Amino acid sequence: MTAISPLAPARFPDLPPVPGVRLAAGEARLRYKGRPDLLLAALAPETAVAGTLTRSHTAAPPVHWCRALLGEGKGARGLVVNAGNANAATGEQGHAAVRQTAEAAAALVGCGADEVYVSSTGVIGEQLPVDRLTAALPGLHDRLSESAWPEAAAAIMTTDTYPKGATAAAEIDGVPVVVNGIAKGSGMIAPNMGTMLAYVFTDANLSAAALRPLVRRGVNRSFNAITVDGDTSTNDTCLLFATGAARHRRIGRAGDSRLESFRAALEAVLTDLARQIVRDGEGAAKLVAITVRGAASEAAARKLGLAIANSPLVKTAIAGEDPNWGRIVAVVGRAGVAFDQARLSIWLGADRAAANGVADPAFDEPAAARHMKGQEVEIAVEIGSGPGAATVWTCDLTHGYIEINADYRS
Amino acid sequence: MTAISPLAPARFPDLPPVPGVRLAAGEARLRYKGRPDLLLAALAPETAVAGTLTRSHTAAPPVHWCRALLGEGKGARGLVVNAGNANAATGEQGHAAVRQTAEAAAALVGCGADEVYVSSTGVIGEQLPVDRLTAALPGLHDRLSESAWPEAAAAIMTTDTYPKGATAAAEIDGVPVVVNGIAKGSGMIAPNMGTMLAYVFTDANLSAAALRPLVRRGVNRSFNAITVDGDTSTNDTCLLFATGAARHRRIGRAGDSRLESFRAALEAVLTDLARQIVRDGEGAAKLVAITVRGAASEAAARKLGLAIANSPLVKTAIAGEDPNWGRIVAVVGRAGVAFDQARLSIWLGADRAAANGVADPAFDEPAAARHMKGQEVEIAVEIGSGPGAATVWTCDLTHGYIEINADYRS
Fold first, then answer.
1. What's the angle, vertex CA A297, arms to CA A292 and CA A300, rounded to 5?
2. How many contacts, defined by CB atoms under 8 Å, are there between A and B?
3. What mean pLDDT, rounded, does chain A reach?
4. Closest alpha carbon within chain B to A313
5. pTM of structure
6. Known catalytic membership, residue A291
7. Exposed/middle/buried for B350, CB within 10 Å: 0-12, 13-18, 19+?
8. Tens of pLDDT along B304-355?
9. Are A233 and B334 inside 8 Å of each other by CB?
10. Distance from CA of B77 to the nearest CA of A (A)
């Protein structure tokens, strides 16, 4: 379980400082020994925040906390994330643990508890040892720095085999700004770990009202377009913090034309993080990009793409390097999206396997089989119903997934 | 791939004759060599029929054919089923092959082509060698018999490891009637096979209007309540034929109180066949029954149950005999059914793991772990929202599934 994924990137990227953001990681020994499991971030006054949270009906107490804070629309001054315990299915005691965490961080940072965001990831159904967590916070506060990005990304890992980070530069009104992101997740993770967390930080000067549509759209095209096993979790959280330290005029609308470069940078960071999560998918040996075109809408295209990406039969065919396009026919048919079967085409790599709903007589199956032997597999589907298109990413389903999730005994 | 499942029943059950039904199986060599792959059934005049068919948007030509016949509301005189080729993603040529099959059978049986039902299961995306099929039909017609149930069940198999049959007796107005069923399916099946076919035959004297609600309700509680991998197919078909040979007065309404015993027999046969399909699930080592109670409706309970049954993380936990109830918390939360988390309870076997949304302090985890070592695992979930309850069945997700579906090369 600690082996590096064959799809791991060569190294953690260099993340530059983000003015107004300081970080520290440390050991609270919540579950893991001898590795950091706690992150504290301190944010400049006036930091705006927006985010998306799991829609699970068994959402964990820290998710409820963040949702309430986002609803109030205040700024953010702190973020605390722990790994090893999801604080999920923990009831009133779990809610109290979140409040205690926020209050402890607020006292250190010098702000209100309602300006401190909290996330947890790890085992579901065990109470969080919150005293150990709060006892570790002062040590972290003493070590806050602008450069602790690798440590921060490592501290939020559970069964991840490598830390995940991304950065992009942009400019707003001629002023350079930076967008940094860190994330964790590699399946809804053994042994019963809460899945996906992502935090993006920028020094751009944007209102929360401007951030909200940006994060919603960006998440739809990144984290909502990936799947390892279709199991979303009790703790999924993505937060975007904008410190406003950059010296351009404050922007209040997501549609402002001055945000063009920033939108692209944000989407690049989110997509990069999302793909890193899939590459670290439990047991993954191949990264799979599935593009659906010709749907009535982008949402319909994404729905079809995710159905393909979640199909165990497609994922095992990819693991077996088998150009088995019949399985794709079956999945797109049952995905709940209506279309004319006679307009269905399917490509494996560059080779069209099916056209007009039947086998393409010109299909170069050996070429498709060679494509599938690579570490990156591309599938495209066209359904001829409209202009909607979307790309989603997944990984193959291998013996490694079964080993991680079944052979483990708790 | 030909090894018998560890969950296989000891033997094929004794199916008595159904007055008005004659069957024969034989070899058309459509894909397999040296094993039967073609079934012909001849039905008495006045046989009523009802059925449910896949809602896939890539439904195969034989499914379209059966849907059109069911819409016309005529009787049925014949049934032809082939294995090895699904006649799916085959376009106009595929439709012509169905017509040719029905016409050939009709000429033998002495009826109209629109009284002959046709099903196919097997490889998707290859044209059906229909001439070989029709050439084999006369030999089958010469051998029609009332007792060829084991041969019929074997002829429709693809990657199934054993033939599936069930029977039950009932009475209507004091007259004994019999209900026989055969089925195939064990995953949406390698290499790209079309999944689930089931045919039920009775001598009861019922109108098609009476049969329709009976088959719909019965299928909801049986075939629509099982899942191996969530992949429904292009060819799923369940047909119920009633020859009317039994000497009770014809019944025209499903709600007729004289049908109480018949309804129970039909549901018993459908549920028995459905469980046999799950037991033959690709790689299955355990049969899992998941009961959801306290939902707003039976449909909501079934939706929650199927979400649990389709979760790779739950299915691998069961394979690993790991009493990992946190994974169940995560799945029921994301299943799209609203409920109050504080009312959630979860049982593994007889042992309650969670109550009021949190860990049950009295949970006997060693006892639950012992339960999970058995070949039949029971999970129960209560959500405290209403009177709706449903049971669904699935199997565990093992290395065997990966071997069958990924290690195979086409």
1. 60
2. 244
3. 91
4. B405
5. 0.86
6. no
7. exposed
8. 999 999 888 899 899 999 998 988 998 999 898 999 999 999 999 999 999 9
9. yes
10. 30
